[in-house]
Prior knowledge:
The structure is a single chain. This protein has helices at about 10-20, 40-45, 65-75, 85-100, 105-110, 120-140, 155-170, 180-195, 195-215; strands at about 1-5, 30, 50-55, 60. It is of the alpha+beta class. Strands 2-1-3-4 form a four-stranded mixed β-sheet. It starts with a strand and ends with a helix. The model has no long low-confidence stretch (mean pLDDT about 95).
Amino acid sequence: MKLYGMLVSPYVARVTLAATLKGLTLPATPPPGGGLKSAEYLALNPLGKIPALEVDDRVIPESMVILDYLEDAHPQPALLPAGALDRAQARLLGRIVDLYVMNSGGVFFRNMNPATRNEQDVESGKAAFLKSLAHLEHFMGAGPYAVGDRLGYGDVAILPCLLMMQNIVAAFGITDMYAGHSRLARWWQQMQIDPAVSTFIADYRVAVTNFLNRR
């Protein structure tokens, strides 16, 4: 298997984290040809996005689809819960993060420079972001992890994305994005003490900080 992408992408990071938890070695490799829109990479993945997983001369794009592939191809240790409803909940959390939480982040990227910042857009972005967190809070599990009582698929799906957003929104005055969200706050506390993800959190924070400093 070969994973194309850069670790700073939360979508790439969720795949590398899932692979690590499954005992697989799957480092991220930069797309061939020097970029996402290179002819070489578009020949592999015409979507022109990362990540993409190459397996036996076939290519799987989209991080959540890749998570499902890893779960099917390498079922042990399992990341998805055993029950059908819990499995659906874990997948739902990933969808909420991708479609709502991360989708609200574009306005922050466009306004990183204070000198050219559109404050009206920023305020609208903040409202959308906080609303998306409320949606995520509603569907989070009641235990210490995203779903159930052990680290799994839901945690992998949301952790890199929330780490990325935590770094970004801090520059816009949202310094505690878990305030008022008891389930998310409890989950975040658990992530910080879980030994299986502590190294990942530290490494990913460094990658995000370096990325933002270059912008």
